[in-house]
Amino acid sequence: MTRLNKGLYFPTHVAAALLALAAIFVLAARADRPYAPSRDYHLQNVRVALRFDLDQRKVIGDVTHTLSVLHDGLKHLDFDCADMTISSARVNGKDAPFELRENKLLVNLAQPAKVGEKFEVQIRYEGKPTAGLYFILPDKDNPNQAKEVWTQGEAEDTHHYIPIYDYPNDRTATEMVLTVPGDWLTVSNGKLLGVQDAPGGMKTWTWRQSLPISTYLISFVAGEYKEKKDTWHNLPVTYNVPRGMEDTLEATFSHTKQMLDFFSERFGVAYPWDQYAQTAVDDFVASGMENVSATTLTTRDMVHADLASERAEAADGLLSHELTHQWFGDLVTCKDWTNTWLNEGFATFGATLWEEHKYGVDAAAYRYWRDQNTWMVSRNLFTVPILERNINDSVEYVGNVYEKAGWVMHMLREQLGDEAFFRALKHYLEANRLQNVVTADLVKAVEESTGTNVDQFFEQWIYGAGAPRFSVKSAYDAAAKKVSLDVKQTQKVEGRVGLFHVPVNVAITTASGEQVFPIQVSKADEAFTFSVDGPPLLVLFDKGDTILKSLDFEKPPEEWIRQLQTAQDVPDRADAAVALGSVKDNDAAVAALGEAAQRDRFWGVRNEALRALGRLNSPAARKQVLAALSNEQPWVRQVAVEQMGLFQHDEEAAKRLQSVARDDKAYSVRGIALQSLGQLKEPGTAALLEKVLRAPSPHNVLQVSTLRAMGALDDPSLDPTLLEWSAAGKPDFLRGVAIGALGRADRKNHDITARLIEYLHDSSFDIRFAAIFALGRRGDPTAIEPLEALLKSGQLSLSMPHSLEDLIRELKAAATPPAAKDLSKDLNVADTSAGNQAVLERLDRLERALMEMNERLRKIESALPAGKSD
Ligand SMILES: [Zn+2]
To answer: How far is the CA of 217 from the centre of ligand 1 (A)?
Structure first.
């Protein structure tokens, strides 16, 4: 699954980092069974026929399970089952007694069963699913909404619309028979066997998935969708979007067939399923879900044709993640949620493989560098292993099984070398094809195929927690012509965090060129010496950044400048840019950053140089940022314009921003210019924003920026506009942004707080979610009570939303002087002094923590009476 990017308000400073993350989280909801349950039977075939009562938001189902019993003496066959009433159960064609007990349907057998005995169990039922199946329908506020019914099975939600065995550790063939209005399209797993007319202008679509799959990967999408058909090696390939979104098809999906070619070749195993369908649905609960042969995506991530040229990599990150899952996750599936990293780590890794192939080694290296920096400051993640049984607390879980696990596979590739690594992957896929796996299966596959023992590697990176925090000092002995390095591992060794044993390349450049020295680091404090032919001009520890780590390496500014100018690898140049962003009053540093911002051969380094200049925020640094506005790539200009939002009392910057907001050919750059103007609180900005808000733009991209800018501007004259755009009738994602902006508007205005409290009960999840954070930002103590009520309303025994509790605690503290601590200060860029790096970094972390809350909040929210599926 790919996590969800909600329509939250984010300050422009962190917007880029968030965009890079591409998605926030909804993962493994209710993944509260870390060990796979023991099984009574093996499912062989699930044939399910579904009809829908749209007015009632009801599903009417008839499922037939073919199964064989796994142990003697079994008296009843149990199926996971929620939100439904059962009208009949039949075993081998005869009526059978049944009972519903604690989310289980027990179907009694006439006599105790024997090992290997086969049964056909037919169950007729109907239900109003509160999870697993979602109805997206027009209403008075959204009369043009396409009618859509879609499912989301992961983690254990399929049993909300089919009584079924609902845990990954079994696999079954499936048949999905859907009877829907004649003008609807349906998409499900496997092969479309046929479409037949049904009474009342309906049509019945029959899909068959013949290779066995885990039940969380069963899915369908049905509704008013438009389809684009293609083929790949004689397999049907389809792209589907809700009617009205056809303008996104080409820009979003055009690389799909190249990806199918690439992954089939790279993984050494041909794409294994009967079709590949990608369907974007409205209000999806994740960014993407790798249902077997039929990926579901969110319409939020579709790329508008008019915006395609503004994105460095279209929607490839999401598409390649889900496509990788078709092998890693679907063909070979984790046996239990504890081993989810075998799904998600590989999918994250696969997306970066595609990025490397399509967009170059630099793009992939920059991705790893950013993921590394984000992960290393996530304190919650640091002390928890990737393989963690206690996964109820999903925050600790998510960032490790995606980014860190992706990094770990990246390191394994580096350490084994491409040939051996991809041979091992191929062997792992072939040996475990259509099986469910645990981590040991991967370890075994690597060793069997390459002879390399990776026990220690897995011990420290998968079963152990953390990563090395290196502190390195270098010295040169001119007489002996030796460079010495003092290398310390400074991570706190405790719990599952140990000392790391890692191979590191030390690269030393002298006047005669670069020499690379491979070393093994394993101790808390070690010294290494290297013979060189003259004084070192540049020393790199872990050249190219191949180890997940943090590095504190003291160097003089001249050496950082040389590193920025001459290092071959993007991470080393990006590190240098970051370091130079803290070097004050140094003209050469500013000049080097300015040069890099305009001319580094990779755009990511240009962006890092711009951010460093933004942090320096001196008159000279500002000049360099303005000069970089001429960059060709919109995603570099975006960062330049974003920095300008920090340049207070700077007439020239304000003027340039106004002209960019008006004239830049990229909508996204214009949008960020508006946000920077909002942050600078330039006179006349309110009127400009009102004007832009009412002019059309593709996918409302300027409306989003304008509403955000209004939040940053914090001008009470705009409150009525924000209230207007927060109200029902406007598109949900714009309402969400307006609500985010209201969170920052006049905090003394209790009417705004009251309106936000109303939104806690809106029918849309997005709106309720936005309202929670907006209330948190306001620091208005009147929000405490409704937030506490919300906290109490959920199934909190399952997953306590610590962060929501923190939020309430902060609000209470803020309401109690003199020890008052205003949370909204932490969250409000406008309140931070320009260029205050510590505050900005704290903001980064806070925003990330907020994102990580998403998954938990969704759980609470899904238990609220106002839920969408009610
Ligand atoms: Zn995934």
So the answer is: 12
